[in-house]
Amino acid sequence: MKLKHLTFLIITLCLLFSCKKNEVSKPSIKQDLLIDLTKLNNEILQFKKLATNNSSQKEILEQFKKSRMAYKKVEWAIEYFIPETARFMNGPALDEMELEENRFFEPHGFQVMEEMIYPEYKTEDKENLIRELNIFQSNIKLLTSTFEVIAISDNYVLDAIEQNIFRIIALGITGFDSPILQSSIPEAGQSLIVIPESLEKINANSKSLADIKKTALKANNYCKENNNFNAFNRAFFITEYLNPISKKIKSFQKEENIKNVKKSSVLKSNIGTLFDKDAFDVNAFVLSEDYNFSTDKAILGEKLFYDKNLSKNNDRSCASCHHPEKAFTDGLRTNLSLTGSNLIRNTPTLTYASLQNAQFWDMRQLDLEKQSVDVIQNKDEMHGSMDNIHAKILLDKDYIKLFKKTYPKNTKPEKWQIQNAIASYVRSLNSFDSRFDEYMRGNKKSLSNQEIEGMNLFMGKAKCATCHFTPLFNGTVPPSYSKTEHEVIGTPNEVSGKSLSTDLGRYIYNKMPQLKGAFKTPTVRNIAVTAPYMHNGVFKTLEEVVSFYNKGGGQGLGYEVENQTLPFDELKLNKKEESALVTFMKTLTDKRYQ
Fold it and tell me: Where along the sequence do coiled-coil regions lie (predicted)?
C-alpha cells in the first residue's frame, strides 16, 4: 500500500515538474526579441564576411535581403520602443536634421547599404559597406541591452503590433524603406507572420487568435505569390487582409481585457482600422489642453475667419484668400497682396492642415495658432494687429458673449483665444468622407477599376505614397505622426521647364544647404479642386504635375538640383497609367466639394 502511494506521489511530482518545466521553457515576448536580435546579428556577421571576402554582387545582394527579412521580424518592437535607433537602421538615406541646433547627422542603415550594392556593387565601396555593417552591429548591441532591461507589458505589445500594421499600410508596401531594390512585398508578409507569434505569448487559446493566424498566413502567402512590386494589388491587400487583421486585434484586446496604452497619440486608441472616419485626433497637434478642439471654438473661429475687421483696412478676411468652395484655396497661381501685386507663393488648402507638424510652404510656423497670427500681421496679406483686433473684440457685445460661452474660465476675451478659435475652425475642416474613404471602409462600388489601378500606382510604381503617406496623403510620417517632412523636387518657374524656381523655401529660415528649395509635402486630399499646384502654382493641371514627376523632377528635366530628395530617374509611366493616377487622385475629394 505504501509502495502504491509512493509510486503515485512520484508520478504526480513528475507531472508537476514536467508542467513547470514546460512553463518555464516557453519563451516570453522579450526572450523571443532577444533571440531574433541574435539571429539578425548573425545575418549581419555573414553579410560582413561576404563583403570582406570580396564576394560577388549576387551573393552580397542575397545576404542583404536575408538580413532585411531578419530585421522585419523585430521591426515592430524596435520602431515602437526605440525609434531613435530605428531611424539609423532602416531610415531614409537622407541627412537627419536638427534645425534648432543647425546641425545634421549622416544617415546609416539598410537604405544607405542598398544604394551601395544595387543596381551595381563596386569593390571600391567595400570599406564604406563594412563601416555601415559595423555601425549596424553596434545598434543591435544597443537594442539588445535596452530590451534586456525594459518591461514589455501586454498592452504595449498590442499597441506596437497595431502600429506596425499601420506602418505596413503607409510605408511597408509603398517601397518607402526599399526605394531601389523594391523588396517591400515579401518583407510585408514577414512582418505580418510575427503578429500571431507574439499574441500567442499573451494567450494561445484566444478565440480571435485563430482568425488572426489564418488571415496573417493568407496575407503572407499572397505576398509570396504576388511579389512583383509594380503589379502588387495594394487595394485588395489592405481591404482583404490588413484591415481585417487590425479589427481582429481589437477583438483580441477586448477578449483579454487589455487596456489601451495611456499616451498622447495622433491615432485614437479605439479605432478598428487606419481608415476609420474618426481615426485621427487633431488635439495631438495642439500646444496644450487649453488649446484642445471644441465645437464652440470652431463656431467662434468661423465668425472670426470671415471677419474683415481682422485686417488693417477692414477689407480682407481669412476667407478672402481661402475660398470654401475651392477647399479653402483661391484658384490663383500665387496669392495677391493688399495692393494687388503678385506674391511668390500659392495659397495652400486649409483642409487637413491641422494634421501637420508645421505650417506654410516653408514650414516656418509649427502650429495653426502661430500661422493665423503670421498671416494677420503680414503687411502684404492682412497687415492687421493682434492688439487692435483684441481691442475691437473687447468692445463688441456679440463677440464677448461668444467668447464667454467658449472660454467660460475667463471673464473677458484674451488674445490667445482669438488665435485658438481661428485654429479650431481650421481643425474642423477634416471630413474623411471621400469615395476613397468609402472604399477603404468596405464599399467596393465606390471606386472604378481605373481608380483602383490609379491607387495601386500611387502606392507603388509611381512612388507618390513614399512622400504623400496614406491615408492623410501629406508628409506627416506614420505611424507616430510626430514629424512632417519637406522635399526638394526641383520645381520649375514655367510649365515649359526652362528655368528652376528661385524660391529657396526652408533655407530662408534655416541656412543649411540641404534645405535649399525645400518645401513642405502638402496633402493630396481635395487636390481636384485646389489647382494650380506646387508652391509657386506653376502647374495648372494634375496631368502636368504627373508628367513632371514621371520625368524625375528638376534633375530629370536637366536642372542642377544637387540636394534633390525626389528620385531623379524616370518613373516610366505610360499614358494609360498617368491617366489612372490622375483619376485616382480625384477620388480624394470630400463630399462637400464634389
Answer: none
Task: Return the C-alpha cell found at 380.
Answer: 502684404
Q: Which fold has domain 283-327+335-427?
A: Cytochrome Bc1 Complex; Chain D, domain 2 (1.10.760)
With beta carbons less than 8 A apart as the criterion, state whether 89 and 75 touch.
Answer: no
User: For residues 185 and 226, is the Cβ–Cβ distance under 8 A?
Assistant: yes
Annotated domain spans of the chain = 26-97+105-152, 153-263, 283-327+335-427, 446-593
Q: At what angle do helices 110-117 and 57-81 cross, to 10 degrees?
A: 170
Q: Is the peptide bond before 179 cis (omega within 30 degrees of 0)?
A: no
pLDDT digit string (tens) for 236-292? 999 999 999 999 999 999 999 999 999 889 999 999 999 999 999 999 999 999 999
Rounded Cα gap, residues 13 and 223, in angstroms: 48
Rounded Cα distance between 9 and 333, Å, is 89
SS3 content of the chain, % helix, strand, coil (to 5): 55, 5, 40
Instruction: Return d(Cα 561, Cα 551) in angstroms, integer.
Output: 14
The 3-state secondary structure of 494-521 reads CCCCCCECCCCEHHHCCCCHHHCCEEEC
Q: How far apart are CA 138 and CA 131, in angstroms?
A: 11
- For 139-158, write each residue's pLDDT tens digit: 999 999 999 999 999 999 99
How much is the pTM? Answer: 0.93
Tell me the backbone φ, ψ of residue 349, rounded to 5 degrees: -65, 150
**CATH dotted code for 446-593:** 1.10.760.10
pLDDT of the residue at 20: 39
Please report the DSSP string for 294-361 in residue order: -HHHHHHHHHHHT-GGGSTTS---GGGTSBGGGTSB-SSSS-B-TTS-B-SS-----TTGGGSS-BST
